Amino acid sequence: MNLPEVSIGGLCPKLPVIQGGMGIGISLSGLASAVANAGGIGIISGVQIGFREPDFEKDPVSANIRAIGKELRRARELAPNGIIGMNFMSIDSHYTEYVTEAVKQGADLIISGAGLPLTLPELTAGSQTRIVPIVSSARACRLILTKWLRKHNRFPDAVVVEGPLAGGHLGFKLDDLYNRTNQTLEQALADVVAYIRKFEQEHNVSIPIFAAGGIMDYTDVQRMLEIGASGVQVGSSFVTTKECDASDRFKQTYLDARPEDVRIIKSPTGFAARAVNTKFVQQAYDHGGIPVQHCFRCMPEICNAATTPYCLSQALFDAARGENMGGLVFCGGRVGELHEIVTVQQVMDRLTKPAAM
């Protein structure tokens, strides 16, 4: 099966591969530009993107807004002909400001999950920025598409279906993940494909679907295409590349992780998440938690500094830098299969070309 040509609102990558947005500081302009130059779609994570700015602790919102522009401009310089987008969590208290800035700075597309990105059409109205929601079920997909159409007369330019083997925050119930009673990616993808195909016929539109979570090689990609996907979104495999923006210690945590080191946790966001069972995670969940030293107020409606087991932002900062017992290292369910540092081009080849006999 040949890889299909894909159009995301007129954006046509050479290869139907989206690099997943990984924060904090894991997928910035370095990784995103390398993926874009290799023919895929490079995604910069907008989650606390300004954490390296000198005034971040004092004024994180301004620092993040400034860094959005810096990272997008740098990615454009490194990949002038590539497709560069950003990923934002819709539960972020400053989602509106961050998406608005990314649009102002000319992001080709916005991918958004961690909740339902119901306001995304109005935040991108009148721009050339394409919009792509992340869903984990046909039910969530139906809700988003119905509300976007009714309130904004807007269709998504693509949809990402994220299965239970994805890294970071997951769109599945904690108990289902523990008991393995959740849908598989294949099941969720088939349901979303069936719903969107009917939706396309009713509204005379075309909406490409990307499968995400546990995609490692060409065989996985072909399986998703056979179910009805137009392409794939991949995260973990791009972490163990030379071009990834993460620290060497972060990458080494991936290389050292065995399958039994992967753990499902309840994030301070309230969502289930998947991470490496570092010493930090063990302290946070098994030994009384880690007191919050400074609250960045990124999600005050959700996260209470007095009761949370740790500060999510600080834990991810520490992970990106390789500090504080390893920090919170989000990972995909198949991280144990990554054993060496490679290049982005090698990952793209593994995803888009059959293995040599």
Automatic annotation (TrEMBL):
Keyword annotations from UniProtKB, A to Z: Flavoprotein, FMN, Monooxygenase, Oxidoreductase
Pfam families: NMO
Superkingdom of the source species: Bacteria
GO terms assigned for molecular function: monooxygenase activity
The protein's name in its UniProt record: Nitronate monooxygenase family protein
